[in-house]
Design brief:
31% of the residues lie in helices and 29% in strands. It is α/β, with parallel strands linked by helices. The strands form two sheets. A six-stranded mixed sheet has the order 5-4-3-6-7-8, sandwiched between helices. It has a three-stranded antiparallel sheet with strand order 1-2-9. α5 links the parallel β6 and β7 (137-146). The termini are far apart.
């Protein structure tokens, strides 16, 4: 298992943990941003991070790992590889999370849901709903980064490689804007 310092070093060295002045999708501002796609482009880092998650579920008789597209695809693959079980992903179709591409979940199948970053847990909850609709059993949730500071609760065992409480502010109360030293950057995969 990775300790907090080792995890932060991996995220920082890969360029996934950014420091600066960021405009978040919510419209709020923050001095930190986590872009997990940057760490997942390095197979050695991905293997270490996924090992942390896989070890947490090694005694839970997991039969399948599922993650949401996009962020959960690589995480699901690597956690599944390490648990020696299949790994699949859900994706959005007409604004709803669904299984496609011939992927199935069998009734009673023991499933771990994984994701790269969790803030509110919305995508993970949608994947859990897909698993339950297929009558699968969600044995736990594994995430690389829990940005909620441990506040998100899925009603099942949850593990994360790194738990952070990334501070953010309304734009009108942003101390970085008041300082005026750093330009605002809009990172991420979605637009505000």
């Amino acid at each position: 298992m990775l300790n907090r310092e080792e995890a932060i070093k991996i995220f920082s060295d890969s360029g996934a943990l950014l420091e600066g002045h960021f405009l978040l999708t919510s419209g709020r501002h923050s001095n930190q941003y986590m872009q997990c796609a940057q760490v997942l482009k390095y197979p050695a880092y991905t293997e270490k991070l996924a090992r942390h998650l896989a070890e947490s579920f090694q005694n839970d008789e997991v039969e399948l790992v599922v993650g949401p597209a996009m962020g959960g695809i690589i995480v699901a693959y690597e956690v599944a590889r390490q648990l020696a079980v299949p790994g699949i992903f859900t994706e959005r179709q007409d604004s709803q999370m669904v299984l496609r591409r011939g992927f199935t979940i069998k009734p009673g199948q023991r499933v771990v849901v994984v994701e790269d970053v969790v803030t509110t847990g919305g995508s993970v909850r949608e994947v859990i709903d897909v698993v339950k609709a297929c009558e699968g059993i969600v044995v736990g949730v594994g995430v690389l980064v829990d940005r909620s500071g441990g506040k998100v609760d899925f009603g099942v065992k949850m593990t994360s490689v790194l738990t952070m409480n990334i501070e953010s502010w309304e734009s009108f109360g942003c101390p970085l804007c008041k300082e005026g030293k750093l330009p605002v950057i809009k990172p991420g995969s979605r637009t505000a």
